[in-house]
Amino acid sequence: MKPVKRVLVTDEATKVIERLRSQHGPLMFHQSGGCCDGSSPMCFKKGEFRVGSNDIRLGEIAGCDFYMSKSQFEYWRHTQLTVDVTRGRGASFSLEIPLGVRFVIRSRIFADDERKRLEPIDFA
């Protein structure tokens, strides 16, 4: 059986990621649940945001590593996250903000059979 991904990305968000990658090079995502846009995923140049022992790598979206703080993961561990994009300016330092869009998370709870097949997480 195929492993179930913890984090997905929409086609619209992938287009924005590809545009940002062409401007900035390799990218990464982090979701902290902290200040600014709260729990909105933030996009950075790869290596610009320093991940540490309090972060977990949930997977990859559109060729970019996606990290989340351990404390945030405790709230989201039973859900599949989908990174999407919406019009409007966020209040963060994320790279997409100058484009007039912002990344957002959509979520759904894993089904019982999916929980048994989840991709493993990586601790930073």
Task: Describe, in short, the structure shown.
The longest helix is centred in the N-terminal third of the chain and has 14 residues, at 11-24.
Task: Describe the protein's architecture and organization.
Helices cover 20% and strands 36% of the residues. Strands 3-2-5-4-8 form a five-stranded mixed sheet. It has a three-stranded mixed sheet with strand order 1-6-7. The protein has 124 residues and is an alpha/beta fold. A hairpin with a 2-residue loop joins strand 4 (55-61) and strand 5. It has a single domain (7-112), classed as Sandwich (Hypothetical Protein Aq_1857, Chain: A), CATH 2.60.300. It is built from three helices and eight strands, in the order βαββββαββαβ. It has helices at 11-24, 70-76, 112-115, and strands at 7-9, 27-31, 42-45, 55-61, 64-69, 79-87, 101-109, 122-123.
* CATH level 3 topology: Hypothetical Protein Aq_1857, Chain: A
| Major sheet strand order | 3-2-5-4-8
- Name the beta content range: 35-45%
Helix/strand-derived category reads alpha/beta
- What is the molecular shape? globular
Q: How far apart, in Å, are the first and last alpha carbons?
A: 27 Å
What is the name of the CATH superfamily? HesB-like domain
**Overall radius of gyration:** 14 Å
- Biggest sheet details: 5 strands, mixed
Q: Figure out the total of helices.
A: 3
Number of strands: 8
> Unreliable segments (pLDDT under 50, ≥5 consecutive)?
none
Second CATH tier, the architecture = Sandwich
**Helix percent band:** 10-25%
Mean pLDDT: 91
Indicate the CATH class: Mainly Beta
Task: Encode the helix/strand succession as letters.
Answer: EHEEEEHEEHE
Number of structural units classed as domains: 1
